[in-house]
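Worked Example 4.2. Consider the chain below.
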Amino acid sequence: MAFVNNVMIIRRDVISRMAELYKEDRLYENIDRIPIEISNRLNGNERCCVHKMRAVVKYKTMAILGFGLNDEKDELDNLAFYAKEALNRKEELPHFLIVADEACTTCVKANYVVTNLCKGCIAQPCMNNCPKKAITRSADGKAFIDPKACVNCGICKDLCPYHSIIYMPVPCEESCPVGAITKDENGFEIIDEDKCILCGKCVNACPFGSILETTELFEIMNLLKQKMPVTAIIAPSIFGQYRAEAGNVIDALYRLGFTNVVEAAEGAMTTTQLESEELIRKLESGKEFMTTSCCPSWVLAAQKHIPEILPYVSHTPSPMAISARKCKEQSPTQPVVFIGPCLAKRKEGRDNPDIDWVMTFEELACLLTGWNISVVECDNIEVNKKVDQQSRNYCLSGGVAAAVQSKVGDDITAQVINGLDKKQMRLLSSYAKSKKPEGQLIEVMSCEGGCISGPCSHEFPKDAKRFFYQNTEKICSCES
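Applying the procedure from the previous section yields the following structure tokens:
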């Protein structure tokens, strides 16, 4: 779930500044000033020193250019060097997420810590019940947990009468629903790409911003700046990202340079029909249930962690894929850029020949800022009236299930998995083994609340949901 913190503010500041420099043809000359200017603005809030802060911002900037730390051949290479490399790059980016060791604080592995609330009591239930004898008394009589011996069972926390023992998570590891993040021999976090489902939860969970998303923003800006014909396919949740009318958002995209703007919700209308037909076929063939396939993080989770559930996952293409195919049929050579709130859509887009680039809502907002385009000041142009509310509601938890049920009828039961975490992964795995789910249609969304709460959103989820309803209901009222 996206929210606002200083890590996000810094990231968005970097992207906006880079977009502005690129627009004004000052990127090579001024990009190396970005870490200096941002660290000066954060004076007093840096980690150990201003130089550490500048190094961290440099690596964040490299990630935005599409480079990980392993791509750094020489520490003396400046950002202008990487900017030139990025603009001349022909191959695909090798990684979607990287960990900046410079920013990682190597959070303590022992999750249970004794606070100063400890009274050094005579009962000592924490010490007497520790299965590994990891708790001893310190010189002042208070309990101390040896992090090397602790196995994080939590018994001590549950037994302490003063609640003086707390659970202190490693935020990125705690947020990952599939255990894809662990520590290396030096204590730095590493991401196992064979396990990662690109849900993006770790990016926003890390309070130091050490997990970075590589982007394709410069490739997209290059197309727009050259005024090449480019199609934008927008996820429906975009109408919740701005305190403006839906028509203002569409016009802002045209002002950026997109020549054609298509709602992915158009494809959702086809997805609903195809997925409802597939559900009926599966049930008639003896399958007990079917899960949806619109969320690419869920599809990756099934492929990598619950392969036994794959026969029950819908094969219907996502609204993005259906919309992109239609665009390519109409204009085969015109680049297609998908714009949405999801990190995993980069992977889906890369695997789909009809999608050329993927841009997130966060990147879009920064691009608009850097190119000095105010959404609220744009014209409120007409929005596609052929798209129904039900198809736009795909971005909300329960929206896909409701759309499919409207086709197949209420006799077929539905279950909504509202956000993937470790518990929900275990539940879905049990369904694959027992064949006894709570519904015949299971909608699975990686993000709690649905795509409206995507990890790469620009607006706070609760506000985004309110803006979305306000905007889309106005479109529907205009239709009637």
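The mean pLDDT is 90. Residues 264-284 form the longest helix (21 residues). Compare this with Example 4.1 before moving on.
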